[in-house]
């Protein structure tokens, strides 16, 4: 997939998020586009987004407490190599990646803020517990820094580390829209042909090699191209050879 296709996807989301009132300032997405555009030919490109706000009125279903509004702060760092015939695995495609989502909520007629958070790590260095290379878990550094020790008897655990495929900025925004915003409020966008084309492009580029590596574990005789036969253990270390 060319850089221009990725750039077009980010531009499309920038316009639509602002049009729907979810974002007021899209400068960081514009900067991400510039970072991709200025990368040298046939060299990795990268971008970094910090605390990009997405506004939601109301609250997620079954949230405790019930909120009047939420702001979801997206932080993502992503470095990717151009895909070519020699890059057939996730590890060859993605050089660095991180995803963090800090959720700040406010009740009506109350000054106090409530916080939650999730993060997606690209890290398989843990040895004390099971540690999928790409895993999504509750909390994260941004969340910890925001609430400090004021947990009000809230128990925070690093476990479980839930396996999850990598997310670029296009898939990150799709993740937020579909997990935190009611279908009726985003379906005009997310059901559009343009939106689904850009999401499909990122899924094919990033998720296909991820899931192919896992599928190869169950079907070694299948006609699936997996250059590194050990990557499935990195993504799902609980697999038994």
What's the layout of helices and strands?
Blueprint lengths: L2 H17 L7 H11 L7 E13 L11 E12 L9 H4 E13 L6 E10 L11 E5 L2 H7 L14 E2 L5 H12 L2 H8 L2 H26 L12 H5 L6
Antiparallel strand pairs: 1-2, 2-3, 3-4, 4-5, 5-6
Structure description:
- With 241 residues, the protein is of the alpha+beta class.
- It has one domain (3-209).
- The protein has eight helices and six strands, in the order ααββαβββαβαααα.
- The protein has helices spanning 3-19, 27-37, 90-93, 141-147, 169-180, 183-190, 193-218, 231-235, and strands at residues 45-57, 69-80, 94-106, 113-122, 134-138, 162-163.
- A six-stranded antiparallel sheet has the order 1-2-3-4-5-6, with helices on both faces.
- α1 packs antiparallel against α2 (27-37) and α1 packs across α7 (193-218).
- The longest helix is centred in the C-terminal third of the chain and has 26 residues, at 193-218.
- The two termini are 33 Å apart.
What's a concise summary of this model?
It contains 8 helices and 6 strands, in the order ααββαβββαβαααα. The chain is α+β, with helices and mostly antiparallel strands.
Largest sheet: 6 strands, antiparallel
Run of helices and strands: HHEEHEEEHEHHHH
3D shape = globular
Count of discrete domains:
1
Class per helix and strand makeup = alpha+beta
Portion of residues within helices: 25-40%
Strand order, largest beta sheet: 1-2-3-4-5-6
Number of strands: 6
Spans where pLDDT lies below 50 across 5 or more residues: none
Note the beta-strand portion: 15-25%
Gap between N and C termini: 33 Å
Rg over CA atoms, rounded to whole Å, is: 19 Å
What's the rounded overall pLDDT mean? 83
**Oligomer designation:** single chain
Helix count, per DSSP? 8
């Amino acid at each position: 997939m060319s850089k221009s296709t990725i750039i077009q996807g980010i531009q499309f989301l920038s316009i639509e998020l602002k049009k729907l009132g979810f974002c007021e300032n899209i400068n960081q997405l514009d900067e991400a586009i510039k970072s991709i555009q200025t990368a040298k030919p046939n060299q990795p490109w990268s971008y970094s987004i910090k605390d990009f706000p997405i506004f939601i009125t109301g609250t997620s279903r079954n949230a405790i407490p019930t909120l009047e509004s939420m702001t979801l702060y997206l932080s993502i760092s992503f470095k990717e190599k151009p895909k070519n015939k020699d890059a057939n695995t996730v590890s060859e495609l993605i050089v660095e990646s991180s995803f963090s989502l800090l959720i700040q909520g406010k009740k009506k007629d109350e000054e106090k803020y409530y916080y939650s958070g999730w993060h997606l790590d690209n890290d398989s260095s843990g040895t004390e517990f099971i540690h999928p290379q790409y895993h999504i878990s509750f909390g994260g550094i941004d969340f910890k820094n925001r609430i400090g020790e004021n947990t009000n008897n809230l128990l925070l655990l690093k476990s479980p580390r839930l396996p999850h495929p990598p997310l670029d900025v296009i898939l990150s925004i799709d993740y937020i829209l579909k997990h935190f915003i009611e279908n009726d409020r985003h379906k005009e966008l997310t059901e559009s042909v343009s939106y689904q084309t850009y999401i499909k492009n990122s899924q094919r580029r990033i998720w296909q090699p991820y899931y192919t590596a896992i599928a190869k574990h169950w079907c070694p005789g299948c006609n699936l191209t997996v250059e590194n036969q050990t990557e499935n253990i990195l993504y799902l270390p609980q697999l038994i050879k």
